[in-house]
Specification:
This protein is α+β, with helices and mostly antiparallel strands and 118 residues long. It has one domain. The chain is built from three helices and six strands; from the N terminus they run αββββααββ. Strands 1, 2, 3, 4, 5 and 6 form a six-stranded mixed β-sheet that branches.
Length: 118
């Protein structure tokens, strides 16, 4: 799944980042029937001590309409841990990782849950 995820992130980031984005958040959604979705949002603020920064959304890079989707029978904790590993790998080796690394912060988490700073 890593290659498919990396291709999706590359496509999203190929359009560039708006100037007013200082942080990014990968939002995970649990859909029906063992289906999961991931979107990327750009935010105008970042505070490592307050997850509400992710609410200051400037752009969803059209990922809300075109999320990364996959099927997994794993529980939410396992899905989160797996994505954490894959996104960390992307930040280390991904083609457009430098665009994310220039930001003040990048996080992953469920939309209604706590964020993990990458």
């Amino acid at each position: 799944m890593y290659d498919e995820l990396a291709t999706w992130i590359d496509k999203v980031l190929a359009q560039g980042l708006p100037k007013d984005i200082v942080a990014a958040c990968f939002n995970i959604y649990e859909d029906a029937d063992n289906s999961w979705s991931l979107e990327l949002v750009g935010c105008s603020s970042f505070d490592p001590d307050d997850d509400d920064w992710a609410c200051d959304e400037v752009s969803d890079f059209d990922t809300r309409d075109n999320p990364f989707t996959w099927n997994s029978e794993d529980d939410w904790e396992t899905v989160l841990a797996d994505l954490l590993t894959k996104l960390t790998r992307y930040l280390e080796t991904g083609s457009n990782a430098d665009k994310l690394k220039k930001l003040d912060g990048v996080a992953v988490g469920f939309v209604d849950g706590d964020l993990i700073i990458l």
